Structure formats: C-alpha cells, structure tokens
C-alpha cells in the first residue's frame, strides 16, 4: 500500500463561467499520471475518505465542494458545469495525463454531462446514476427554490430538465424517513414531453463508462436509469460496463469504506451488506477504468459491450429536502 500525501485545503478562483471552489486532494507520495475528480451526491460533501482510498490505489484524487460554498449557489440550482472543468484542469496541472470523474447520485448526473460536453475525459464511473437531467434541489443564487430551474448550466445556458411534480406526497408517517422514489417516477409520468430533451446523451460521450446501480434504490430508480444509459451506449456501438445487484440501495460502498449511517430524513434502500457487495463487485471495473491500461494488467471489462449485467444477483427488491437533498450522500 503506497504512502499518500494529503492536501486538505485545495482552492481555485474558478475561471470563465466557473465558480470558485475549495476541496481536498490525496495522491500517492510517488506521484501519479492518473487523476480522478470525486463528486458527492446532494450532500455536497467533500469526499475525503473516498479520495484517500483511491490514492492508496495509485490515483491522484480530488474532491471539491460544488454548491453551498462562498460564491456558489446555496442549492443544486444552475450549478455551472465549468466548475468541474476547472477542477479537472487542476488535476492536469498536477501531472495527470489520464483524467476521470467518479460521482454518486447527483454527482453522477454531473459526471455524465461532463463526459458529453467536455472533451478529454477518459472515464466516468457513475454510482446510482440518473439518465435524465433533473430540476434544482434547493435554492439558487437568488435564494429561492421556485420556480423549478435546471440543476446545471453550460456556457451560461441551463440544460433542459424534468421538473418535480408538485402533486406528489410521501406515503410514510409524518416524521419518519421518506422514500422519494415515487416522486421521481410520478414526475416522469407527468411530463413525458420533456424526457427526450432532458435525456443525458451518453451516446455522444467518448469516455469509458462504468455504471453501478442497486435494484432496491429508494431515492430514485437508478437501476432503470442505468439500463437506459447502457442501452443508448450499446445502440451507438459504444462500450459500457453495467454492474448491478438487486438487493443493493442508493449508496454502494467501495472496499475499505465503512457503512454509511442510516438517515433520519430519507430511506435509501438496500442494506450495509448488499451495498458493500455491490461496491465489491464493481471495484475491479472501477479501478481499471480510472487507472487505465497498465502493463501486465488484465482487463476485467473486456466483455463490456456484450450487454450483460455481470454482477446481478438474486437479491430481494423490486428541490428541497423532500426532493432528495441528503446530508448522508
């Protein structure tokens, strides 16, 4: 296990259309030519533990705060994707020749868009992804969460999105943790006219793509979304790796990461054991995608374009805090 060097206060002033950001970087002491930008979900958390894990695998890993910080929108509302481009530029400036993005949930949504819009991204790992662009979660720069706006902008223009259906109500008792899966499903049914424009066009991405999703995700239907993304890639003749587990939830855990504490606000589905098993099944493919070809290494994803879900199991399972802004992701 290599020694790593941590830089806990990485900062950038932003750039053209990019917000300023702060973050955390961990890298092997000997250096690395492979860098990865690590994005949290709707917590906005800087993913220090995950960066350390990836650094021990030989990667220069950088995680940034991309909303809620100084000069940034307080919620996931019209966040400039150029902010992430700025962070990728920092990885390149530090010596990375291969650059990738690993994101979970809303971070996966951003990562997928980046791979389409920004040339030069070698790989994307999307944990619990969406195939659609969604409306804001929380307020924008004006302090208001309404009316609905896109989560993202590119070159100053908001990306087409699906708004949340305002008629949805949770089925759980008041005060109990809530599953918002039904809200996302109802919102899709309410606006079928917007789905084509809001689809993330991964068929236009040149990045290597690894998708990881659990069938018991109670935050949004990430397995269905992942299969939609994979189908678009395969229809375009492009490779994709889809790793699934029927009984895993919204928060897959990579080997060496501890279980995430249960949320008092949301039901995520899965279990610590199933979420860890999904992460373990995906891990060889994640490492290969992020590190890239190395002498003497076999490719665990050599059959990635065959259309199989290699880690499927027989497990059980079928704009605001309510929309899924979650401090535990």
Estimate percent helicity.
10-25%
Estimate what percentage of residues fall within beta strands. Answer: 15-25%
Distance between the termini: 27 Å
Structural class: alpha/beta
Count every beta strand, where a strand is a DSSP E run of 2 or more residues.
11
* DSSP summary: helix tally: 7
Unreliable runs: 301-308, 310-322
Shape: globular
Main beta sheet: 8 strands, mixed
Report the average pLDDT across residues.
Answer: 91
Give me the strand/helix succession: EEEHEEHEHEEEHHEHEH
* Radius of gyration (Å): 18 Å
Strand arrangement across the biggest beta sheet: 1-2-4-3-6-7-10-11
What does this 3D model show about the protein?
By secondary structure, the chain is an alpha/beta fold. The chain is built from seven helices and eleven strands. It has an eight-stranded mixed β-sheet, sandwiched between helices. A three-stranded mixed β-sheet has the order 5-8-9.
